[in-house]
Amino acid sequence: MTILQISSLLIVLAGVFGAINYLFLKLPSAIGILVVALVASFGMMGVDWMLPHLGISDEIRRLVTGLHFSDALLEGMLGLLLFAGALHVKISDLRAQWRAVFLMATLGVGLSTLVIGTGFSWLTGAPFLIALVFGSVVSPTDPVAVLGVLREANLSKALETKIAGESLFNDGVGYVVFLVLVGLAFPTGDAHGSGLAGAAKLFVQEALGGAALGLALGWLTFRVMRHIDDYSLEVLLTLGLAFGGYELAVYLHVSAPIMAVCAGLLIGEVGAKHGMSETTRQYVDGFWKLIDEILNAVLFLMIGFEVFAVAFETDYLLIGAASIALALFGRLAAVLVPIYILRPFRTFENGVIPIMTWGGLKGGISVALALSLPDSEWKPVILTATYLVVIFSIIVQGLTVARLANRFGREPDLV
Prior knowledge:
mainly alpha; 80% helix; globular
């Protein structure tokens, strides 16, 4: 199938499944599409089991594999999704929460990777470095999933800013940690670093380089927009920034996710205030919300169909079930330690820890990272465990985080 045919099929299915959810399930849009896609996938597997001569599963598996989910997300959709998410997080709001956001997106990701990796190594007997790779795969919270659920949860503004800001940045940091660990664990595969020195150099280059490029391109775009009063052209400029900046970051070997976040934050704050008219602001805001919703729907649809890439072996499924608990424990460490570090300086209300732990959803990025791993004897179990963690996170945590917020009065925040 051509790219146009695949894109058309995904959009049609996202629309149909979205309509089914809207009319019957009435779940949050993205989660509902994922649930319908999963039900349809298992339904087709059931038909294949009863009528094996049709070869339905094999045909769909070839189609799903042909989608190249990892490439489609990491090298295509992710830049637009991160830019759209960052565009609606104000720097002025983020500034008040920067200490918690910074610690959770850096120290938190590291702690989570270590905790999950240690548990996974003990659970499976995997070499420690490979287990750490799994930890880095499921440690970042997915901004696509998180921001989608935040719209439904109606959390307090400050807590929403902390969760959204952390998810945007820990996604970029987590991706860099993943690249470093893959380079160390698979030195004969797609290595991204050479030893600890190379890993440290890569981390600095990716993280700081991505931030610098994003701010530079965002500032340049803002300066151009100041001299233009044409909403259609200004929308096009922001689209060019998201697309072109992401590809330039990939070419320069700096972190494209961090680039997209920094560029989006700058345009959403400085650009919106000083480089756009009121009409342009409305169109830019509406355009990127629509892009976010459409890509969000397609992404969750693709996650649902990726079940065909999972190895349904009993041992793998048991390891995956145990990995759900590991992922939650790692997320607890990522939230708990930074908060206790900040307690002498800031006061936290009750509820911050459980809400940020339960609200740290995993998503398509984790699945994409697992799929992008070099082939090895550990890849199937890592992929299966990652998929189960993501499905549990989106469906179970995603559908209950609003109730958890209600239980704590939706006021669990910094004073």
